[in-house]
Amino acid sequence: MKVGIIDGSVREGRKSTSVAEWVKKNADSHGGAEFEIVPLAEFNIPILTSATVPGAANRQYDTPEVQKWSEAIDSYDAFIFVTPEYNHGVPGALKNAFDSIGPEWQNKPAALVSYGADSGVRAVEQWRQILANFNMHVVRSQVSLSLFTEFSETGVAPEARRTDEINGLFDQLLASGK
């Protein structure tokens, strides 16, 4: 099983990268699959204005950026979305990237790791609704990190209990992909 850890922010100074690296470090220790970070910021996906219907069965898109994104996402069997919460919701760039393609997401398991002022829980709830539209099985376990207590000047600094939480998330994700 190949799992993409989507680093879901494109902002300058984003915290998602340190969270994605923490997830990968723990995933590699957990084992059971091949884990790779997918840095959304490196794809430079344009705002969805294309006349091509996302989800085209042939997976052919109008821009090279979206085509590259499609091919990358299609190569994974499951996903861990590292999502910030912006203004009580999902980040626009990640939602745009998600909406820019379609069949690449279909029927694949997913897990959610969030962060924000209220630990990103509202973004997680919205992602659960969005991912369900593509028949993605989103595991129950999630890890939600507080911007106020679990980040330092150098990045994410999760509470000790998060190790058990992330391992439970991996267990559920890997079991749902079998």
Automatic annotation (TrEMBL):
<dbReference type="InterPro" id="IPR005025">
    <property type="entry name" value="FMN_Rdtase-like_dom"/>
</dbReference>
<protein>
    <submittedName>
        <fullName>NAD(P)H-dependent oxidoreductase</fullName>
    </submittedName>
</protein>
<dbReference type="GO" id="GO:0005829">
    <property type="term" value="C:cytosol"/>
</dbReference>
<dbReference type="InterPro" id="IPR029039">
    <property type="entry name" value="Flavoprotein-like_sf"/>
</dbReference>
<dbReference type="InterPro" id="IPR050712">
    <property type="entry name" value="NAD(P)H-dep_reductase"/>
</dbReference>
<dbReference type="Pfam" id="PF03358">
    <property type="entry name" value="FMN_red"/>
</dbReference>
<dbReference type="GO" id="GO:0016491">
    <property type="term" value="F:oxidoreductase activity"/>
</dbReference>
<feature type="domain" description="NADPH-dependent FMN reductase-like">
    <location>
        <begin position="1"/>
        <end position="148"/>
    </location>
</feature>
<dbReference type="GO" id="GO:0010181">
    <property type="term" value="F:FMN binding"/>
</dbReference>
